[in-house]
Write a structure and sequence with these properties.
With about 375 residues, the protein is an all-beta fold. The protein has strands spanning about 20, 30-35, 40-50, 55-65, 75-85, 100-105, 110-120, 125-130, 135-140, 150-155, 160-165, 175-180, 185-190, 210-215, 220-225, 230-240, 240-250, 260-265, 270-275, 280-285, 290-300, 305-315, 315-325, 330-335, 340, 345-350, 355-360, 370-375, 380. Helices cover about 0% and strands about 50% of the residues. It comes from Arthrobotrys conoides.
Length: about 375
C-alpha cells in the first residue's frame, strides 16, 4: 500500500502546524466501540489501529444525519477525522503490533472512552477521552511481549466497573479491576495456569483474548482464549468464581484472532475467529453454543486481526466487523437482524487518504487537536 515518505531527520515541530500521518501497519490490531451522546441524540463509532511507523490512530465515523435512527441511504457513514496517538520516541510510544482494547462508560452524563495498549516497555497504558480532554497514563502492569488485551464492563450510572485481561510473562491469564468511582486499578483473579508443554489445555503463549458480559448491571462474564493444542475454550464467571469449558472448536490456526460481542440486549452472543483459509467464522450463542460456520466467502489478509462493535439503531442492532483486507486496507462487514446475514461484500473504510491535524506550534497533535483537516487528492475536504 502506498504511503507518504517520512524524513526522520526533520523536526516535526519545525514544519509548521501540521503533522503528517502514515499508512496502515500490516497486520495491525484493531479496537472498535460505539459512542452515544445521549443529550444530543447523536452517535458515532471509533476505530483504533496502528500505522506503519507505530503511531496509534483514532478514526471517528459519524452518521451524516447525526441521529440514532438507522441511516437509510447507502454510505451513510463518513470519516469525521483521524487523530494520531502515542508517537514513537515518547514515553507514550506503543510497541509494534500492540494489542488494542476499548470501552465506553456513561457515568458522568457524557461518554468517556478508554483505550488500552502496550508500550515499548511491555507495560499497559490507558488513554482516556473525557469532556473534551485526553490523558495517557501507564497502569504499571507488565505483560508478556506477545500478550493480547481485552476489556469489558458492567453497571449503570456512577457504579460502572471495568475488568481488564492480559497474559503475564508466565503465560497465565490475569485480571485487573477498576471501580470507576474509586479510580484505582486493583489486581483481580488469575484465570488460568501458566503456559505448559505438558498441558494441552493451558493457554497458548500469545493467544488472542476477548471478553463480553451477558448482563448490563452485574458480572456475567465470558472470555475466550486458545489453548496450547489449538482449541478455543471459554472462561465463565457467574457469582463468585471462574470456570473453563470447551465451546466445540477443537482446532484453529495458532494465534487466530478472536472477537466476541453481545447483541439484542445481551440475549445473543457471537464469537468470531479466522480459519486456515483466512475466512472469518462465527459461533453463535443463544443459551448454548451452536456450530461454527463462515460468515461469507471473502478472505481477510493473512495474519489479519478482528474487531467488532454493535450499533443500536432504534428497534434493532447491527454488528460492524473490522479487519485488514488483502491489499492492506481496513474492511468493514455489517450484519443486520432483518436478514440475519452479513452483507454481500466487505466495504473499504477510508484510511489511506493523508490526514493533517492542525495544532498550535510546538504542541503534540496527539493531544492538542484544534482543527482536523482531511486531505484527498491534494485538496482539503
Amino acid at each position: 500500500m502506498p504511503f507518504e515518505a517520512r524524513d526522520d531527520n526533520v523536526d516535526p515541530d519545525a514544519i509548521g502546524n501540521y503533522y503528517h500521518d502514515d499508512g496502515l501497519l500490516w497486520q495491525t490490531n484493531y479496537a472498535a466501540v460505539e459512542v452515544f451522546d445521549y443529550p444530543h441524540a447523536t452517535m458515532h463509532m471509533k476505530i483504533f489501529c496502528q500505522s506503519y511507523w507505530g503511531e496509534l490512530h483514532d478514526l471517528t465515523f459519524s452518521s451524516k444525519r447525526g441521529s440514532t435512527k438507522e441511516p437509510e441511504e447507502e454510505n451513510a457513514w463518513e470519516t469525521k477525522f483521524r487523530q494520531s496517538l502515542a508517537r514513537p520516541g515518547t514515553d507514550e510510544a506503543a510497541m509494534m503490533h500492540t494489542p488494542l482494547a476499548a470501552v465506553v462508560r456513561y457515568d458522568t452524563g457524557n461518554p468517556t472512552t478508554h483505550l488500552f495498549y502496550i508500550s515499548t516497555g511491555f507495560k499497559i497504558r490507558e488513554v482516556v477521552w473525557k469532556n473534551g480532554s485526553q490523558t495517557n497514563d501507564c497502569l504499571g502492569i507488565t505483560v508478556c511481549p506477545t500478550s493480547s488485551l481485552a476489556v469489558t464492563k458492567w453497571g449503570a450510572g456512577s457504579q460502572t466497573h471495568f475488568r481488564l485481561y492480559y497474559q503475564s510473562k508466565a503465560g497465565t491469564i490475569e485480571e485487573h479491576c477498576l471501580d470507576c468511582n474509586a479510580g484505582t486499578w486493583t489486581k483481580g483473579a488469575t484465570l488460568s495456569g501458566p503456559v505448559s508443554a505438558y498441558d494441552n489445555d493451558s493457554p497458548l503463549r500469545g493467544t488472542s483474548l476477548t471478553f463480553i458480559n451477558l448482563s448490563q448491571d452485574k458480572p456475567e462474564l465470558r472470555g475466550f482464549f486458545q489453548t496450547a493444542k489449538g482449541s478455543i475454550q471459554e472462561f465463565t464467571y457467574k457469582g463468585t468464581k471462574w470456570s473453563t469449558s470447551p465451546i466445540g472448536i477443537e482446532a484453529a490456526p495458532f494465534r487466530t484472532p478472536l472477537a466476541a460481542i453481545t447483541v439484542e440486549k445481551n440475549k445473543r452472543a457471537a464469537l468470531y475467529y479466522v480459519d486456515a483459509y483466512n475466512r472469518v467464522n462465527e459461533v453463535r450463542w443463544e443459551g448454548d453454543w451452536e456450530g461454527s460456520e463462515r460468515i461469507d466467502g471473502d478472505s481477510v489478509a493473512p495474519g489479519a486481526r478482528l474487531a467488532v462493535a454493535s450499533l443500536k439503531y432504534i428497534g434493532h442492532d447491527k454488528i460492524h466487523m473490522f479487519s485488514s483486507g488483502l491489499v492492506n486496507v481496513i474492511t468493514q462487514r455489517v450484519w443486520t437482524r432483518e436478514d440475519g446475514t452479513w452483507g454481500d461484500r466487505p466495504t473499504i473504510v477510508d484510511f489511506e487518504a493523508p490526514v493533517q491535524v492542525e495544532v498550535d506550534p510546538g504542541l503534540d497533535p496527539a493531544v492538542h487537536v484544534r482543527n482536523p483537516i482531511i486531505i484527498r487528492g491534494g485538496r482539503r475536504v
